[in-house]
Amino acid sequence: MEVVIRPADELAVLAADVIEARLREHPESVLGLATGSSPLKVYQELIRRHRESGLSFARARGFTLDEYVGLPTDHPERYRNVIAEEFVDHLDWPAEQVRGPDGLAEDLIAACASYEREIKDAGGVDIQLLGIGSDGHIAFNEPGSSLASRTRIKSLTQQTRRDNARFFDGDIDQVPVHCLTQGLGTISEARHLVLLAAGEEKAEAVHQLVEGPVSARWPATVMQFHPHVTVLVDEAAASRL
Ligand code: GLP
Fold first, then answer.
1. Which of 203, 235, 234, 202 is closest to 8 using CA atoms?
2. pTM
3. Which of 48, 59, 83, 159 suits 172 as a labelling partner, its CA being 20 to 30 A distant?
4. Active site at which residues (predicted)?
5. How far does residue 142's CA lie from ligand 1's centre (Å)?
6. Cβ 65 under 6 angstroms from ligand 1
7. What is the Å distance from ligand 1's center to 161 Cα?
8. Cβ atoms 220, 137 nearer than 8 A
9. At 153, is the pLDDT very low, low, confident or very high (cuts 50, 70, 90)?
10. What is the pLDDT of residues 34-72, one digit of tens each?
11. Where are the domains of the chain?
12. What is the CATH number of domain 2-233?
């Protein structure tokens, strides 16, 4: 595990460098996309490079990590819409080449299985961007998630619903109760994991991720088993290392 401690702005540039290098060499790469505020600056940096130096996503494929269950198609916080709005719509990336779990499927269990198949059929994820929750969750794998878990339905913890209420007019009651999420086993199959974290509220989760014992209590610690992990953190998020 490589841990890089830099000012927050530089972290986005470093993550964008990893993705750009991969795309320039392998335009057909499969990218794993994350939502939340952590990767936003990475997306902005990649959009800038697309505009200014022609970095192309036209042949890439993308898979998002997770999705809320039950948000209507046009809801701005539906992750599919968030990723389109913040990133994909600003690139030369055909929308149909970016996929996410279907939180509106009638049969959610079948939707999870078919999402796993899609990722597999694409050859697996080359670079997976990740944020981390203050309780150590990655994607929506909350504490207690099996380290071998696959894409499935999960309940969100009160902590995560409280953390994410800021995207729902500050109203926790508007935050969905269930989600579909790639499992820790699914995420671990990506060939390079790039996690970003900034701010003091992530410090304990980052401490556990890097130095804690591997445990479902802190789901991100599964990354300690992975052969190629880059953890990009600012001073505040690194303050307990
Ligand atoms: C959500 C997402 C996670 C993300 C986490 C942290 O719960 N499902 O994928 O890592 O939030 O979000 P942020 O980056 O906004 O702190």
1. 234
2. 0.96
3. 83
4. 66 (proton acceptor), 135 (for ring-opening step), 137 (proton acceptor), 142 (for ring-opening step)
5. 11
6. yes
7. 11
8. yes
9. very high
10. 998 999 999 999 999 999 999 999 999 999 999 999 999
11. 2-233
12. 3.40.50.1360
